[in-house]
Amino acid sequence: MADSVTGPAAALRHPAAAPFGVLAAGLAGAGYLYTTDPHEPGHLLPGCPFRAVTGLLCPACGGTRMVYDLMHGQFAGAWLDNRMLLLASPLALGLLGRWFVEGVRGRRWRPRLGTRTQAVMLAAAVAWTVARNVV
Fold first, then answer.
1. What's the rounded Cα separation, in Å, for the pair 65 and 38?
2. Which residues of 2-21 are buried (b: 16+ CB within 10 A; e: fewer)?
3. Is the dihedral of CA 38, 42, 48, 51 positive or negative?
4. What does the pLDDT look like over 97-114, one tens digit per residue?
5. How far apart are CA 66 and CA 64, in angstroms?
6. How far is CA 2 from CA 5, 15, 121, in A?
7. Are 62 and 56 in contact (CB under 8 A)?
8. Using CA atoms, how far apart are residues 84 and 86, in angstroms rounded to an integer?
9. Backbone angle region of 41, left / alpha / beta, with phi > 0 → left and psi within -120 to 50 → alpha
10. How far apart (Å, rounded) are the C-alpha atoms in residues 35 and 77?
């Protein structure tokens, strides 16, 4: 009896399945966001749970507004919405792109972050959270 799986189950196990799923969800979200101004009330965009509980801005607060502004060519507005996230976006997009390319090539790719890198990222997020809530 063969151990190989065929059909839909095999397709979901392919290394490109998750990146394609993330791409599809991202495109759907971007399509909705392009036509929905998060600067205005009355939309179906989720709020920040951290802000709802604490009343403080989290490291990613303003990210939805930032993406909306970028899609509409408002770079100054994107900068004001979330500077740290805007600066980190090229790195995040590069990592997502590499994940997608490796998946299409049939290889699984999982970036590995060392302990120091994780500590620096956490410290930067905490510092950004404090700075944006104090100023």
1. 6
2. eeeeeeeeeeeeeebeebee
3. positive
4. 999 999 999 999 988 889
5. 5
6. 8, 21, 46
7. no
8. 5
9. beta
10. 17
> How far does the chain reach from its first CA to its final CA, in angstroms?
66
Q: Higher-confidence residue: 5 or 31?
A: 31
- Tell me how far apart the alpha carbons of residues 38 and 30 are, in angstroms, rounded to a whole number: 12
Q: Are 15 and 103 in contact (CB under 8 A)?
A: yes
Q: Report how far residue 16's alpha carbon sits from residue 37's, in angstroms, rounded to the nearest whole number.
A: 32
Q: How far is CA 122 from the centre of its chain?
A: 16
**Structure confidence by residue, pLDDT tens digits, 30-42:** 999 999 999 998 8
Tell me: pLDDT of 3 over 70: no
- Above 60 in pLDDT, residue 78? yes
Length of the chain: 135
